[in-house]
Amino acid sequence: MTDLPVLYDVADGIATITLNRAEAMNSLNIATKEALLAAVQRAADDDTVRCVVLTGTGRAFCVGQDLKEHIQLLENDPDSSLSSTVDEHYNPTVTALATMAKPVIAALNGIAAGAGASLAFACDFRILADGAGFNLAFPGVALSCDTGCSWTLPRLVGQAKAIELLYFPSTIKADQALELGLATRVVPADDLAETVGELAGRLASGPTVSYGSIRQSVAYSAGHSLEDSLAFESAKMGLTGATRDHRAAVAAFVAKEKATFEGR
User: Fold this and answer.
1) Is the same domain home to 68 and 178?
2) Which residues form the domain of 237?
């Protein structure tokens, strides 16, 4: 396999972004963060991509910040701060991941910790292999949470549970993640690729503008009033109502046929 830190592949409308530092449990050094940001933005901007899958190689999905590199940076510059990489890498990556106008799946082949967990929380679906899990590792290294975790986690599990998980990090195994609502589905490790492939295929063949508008409307409503959210919904209804997919779907319904979507 190539030694690139992030792999990018598009097939049948599905962009698969793979973190490829298995020997480092897909921890995020500067090179990986830059490559991941570029890959996520590339997928977001590519109109031929109708679904995105984020996954990892080896036994981890992503364990977050590469602390070995961070220690070296601190040794070279004691005043070095993580805030710069948050602003330059983590924030734009999670923003693109969470706001792109197409569905996003996190396929967790293994543990997702720290920023790795945060990246997964920003996706629409989290499909976990049965040996995978989460760990909100930030207090273990005396750091605050990042990569959007303060926004996504409370919306998944509620504010009180989010505080508990963040204050007292431990490994949340796949079955517990399912109970908490952190996992969409848990499958045997050998079935992960097939399960994710089926879901991604279904999403990639669906009404992409509709999916994108729905995910953006749900996100928008989390921080706005009912009146503002209704106005946003109205604008998105105008957008989707003018698509070829909508016209085709209505015609198929009247003809009692199955609609075929082009994603436009």
Assistant:
1) yes
2) 208-254
Claim: this prediction has a pTM higher than 0.90 = yes
pLDDT tens for each residue of 56-115: 999 999 999 998 876 776 666 665 566 688 999 999 999 999 999 999 999 999 999 999
pLDDT for position 234: 97
Token look-up 């961070």 returns: 70
Radius of gyration of the chain (CA): 19
Q: Please indicate, yes or no, whether residues 28 and 145 belong to a single structural domain of this protein.
A: yes
The string of pLDDT tens digits covering residues 174-210 is 999 999 999 999 999 999 999 999 999 999 999 999 9
Residues 138 and 219 in one domain: no
Report the DSSP beta bridge partners of residue 96: none
